[in-house]
Amino acid sequence: MTRHSRARLFLRTATCVVLAHSIQLARAEDIVSPLQDREERITVTRGTASANGVTNTTPGGGLMPRQTAAKTISGITRDFIAKQSPTTNALTLLKAMPGVIVSSVDPLGTSDRMNVSIRGLNQTEIGTTFEGMPVGDRLYYSPFTSEWADSENLGFVDVAQGSPDISAPVYNSVGGQINAGLRNPSDHFGGLVDAAGGSKATNRAFLRVDTGRLGASGIKGYVSFSHSGNDNWRGTGGQTRDHVDARFVKEWGDGNRIAPFLAWNLVRADLFTNPTLAQWNASGDSYNYAGNYTFGNTMYQKFHFYRRQTVMMAVPSNVALTAALKLSVTPYFMYNHGIINGGSVLNDDNVFYGNRPAGPLNLPYSVNGQATVENVDPYTQFSAGQNAYLTWTRGHNTLQFGYWYDYFDHNEATSFAVADFAGNVANSYGHAPVLTAGGDVLRSFDGHIIQQINALFISDTLRFLDNRLTLNAGFKDAMVSRSATSLIPGSTYAVTANDAVPLPQVSASYRITPNDQIYLNGTTAFREPASINSYVDIFNVATGKMSSTHSTNLRPEYSISEEFGYRHYGLVNVSAAFFNYNFTNRQVSTSALVNGTPETFSLNAGGQTSRGVQAEVGLRPWHHVSPYLSGQYLHATIDNNFARSGDLLPTKGKTAVLSPEFSGTIGLSYDDGAAFGNFAMTYVGSQYTTFMNDQHIPGYETANVTLGYRFHTLGPARHPQVQVNLINIGNEKYLSGAYGVTPNARTIRGVYGTSLAGSSPAYYVGAGFAAIVSLSTGF
């Protein structure tokens, strides 16, 4: 069945459901937007008293909260989040979830230069939302989860492995959706102090102050600040991060709520190397950037760093217009300014600005006509928009209609800064650039992209048989417009792309008993091409030739997926699901050094079929103990041969890249109200890193341990505690994932007889051992 015929089938089914009549009450937020409508909801009849939000009531030690939506969703709560290292980010917290593979590069979880994949689909194919707004890099699709919130303020993190909410403001979500939200403010004045230290000179301080309810206004909120720093666990260099969170909530009447928040983040980090397999086999984790400079050494650590500053704010609001009609609206704004640098060598005479000769440059600190330079790649982004929908309930029928508008602006232009004989540059941020003989700033590319999104959706939910049977159908039309310009001589000045993507979905669930549920769904999703390189030409300044050209095939990736699942909740909790995907225009993101600077590219791998099964089991706290088990089997294959250099690589039937056949986690949590701890061991099977399956990384296992003790309240110190986190306790040496995949690693003869040279993938080096000790108390 073709994509369009299947889409028509979904639409007919949707029409039939929407025309049905209604007789009983439905709660649409549980079905249509289980992630977008999510907030930290805690109802405790018995639980642990703590200052950091731990209640010890979630099955599996905080790894298996109850879900009711007709699709696979896994999640974590404060019962798990608070017991992990306070330095960690939201993606690292998800590594125990079924189907989620985290390619971590540092044990502390502080670095955003990592990768996560779900069911073999990497993070550029996963939609990310925080407090109802789209987050992360809107062009390269990196989540940058350290920007979202400090771990002490995270209320929950959920992952929908199969499909996003129909109301979600995302456009790269063929691999599902990750959604996170902040904790709710306290009703009473107080706060939390947390101090941590440990391996590699780790130091971190966190302070939060809750206002409590402010008089008769009913407004409550909090503001927090944190600072952290650490040395890189391998090589030289380190990282610093400063972060502010602020949230206020006002609730009134029946279902009215406004909850504005603001987050500010500033990070500066020295980069890690990404070795090839040959470099890893030869040097292991000793293959690093150099701590000392010699002339011409482009691997000098000070050249390779990134800095990123982010401001994001949103005002999630729910207003009951009438007893039957509710408005949900989230206006938002996000600003990013970042830089990611590398190193290279410039020839004083043989140098080009686009396709034009640019010399002589008359470079200082040159030897034999050559100078070492720091490649400077700054970018500025801002986005603003709103996501709104109306929910109308009558009897057992709930109808939703929504509209999402988003404006996004991205500017990025490279330059070069000359290094002196000690390896220092006058300015690493582009304020003292190398100029051409004609006085222009020497650049490899200079691009500007404006994107606008208009998306409409309608969804209808019905319940029958005393609310045991739930049917839902919806349709979303996402219209994406991108306009790019390039100012480099010889490049294509303007490139435009306009897409209107139909996204139907249907689902059904049946509650067999109050604790048993079956469900099935059919959904669609899409992903726009990633990276500025898809729209802007990049030149090699040493040759005047294009090192990459803008794509002439800018069609979005499109997926059709089906799931069939079962859930049981009780003392023992079980969730299992079978899934199937079909992809067209599968966009595989890869990274490489271009002119010495890391760049991201999209490869159109054509069609792909993925199917498998996932499951998780968690015990409700029983005698203070909560075990957890999750696993996934995945079979993913490429559906066609890969076009390359006028020929075809015989990739049809090969296993898709970064798709381990087996993965899973075993966990155990203990908490008696005073002493607490948990253990988690994760296994990831081997993964191919080329389309031809001629190179792979072996499987690996890692394990983490938490130990802690919670004291009684002592004067103004409310429930102080000490906590020790041991990460990768076996100090496993492994490659955690692919930084850049390639079509083939070895020279291959194509279908039509052409000899197609191979290129080696580059890899993430898995995080080593670390120990973190933290002391915290409420007040």
TrEMBL record:
Going by the entry's taxonomy, the superkingdom of the source organism is recorded as Bacteria
For membrane topology, the record states:
Multi-pass membrane protein
A Pfam family hit: Plug
**Keyword check for Iron:** yes
Identification of the protein by name: TonB-dependent receptor plug domain-containing protein
Chief location of this protein?
membrane
Q: Does the keyword Zinc apply?
A: no
Q: What is the species listed in this Swiss-Prot or TrEMBL entry?
A: Nguyenibacter vanlangensis
Enumerate the GO terms in the molecular function aspect. siderophore uptake transmembrane transporter activity
Which intervals hold domain TonB-dependent receptor plug?
67-164
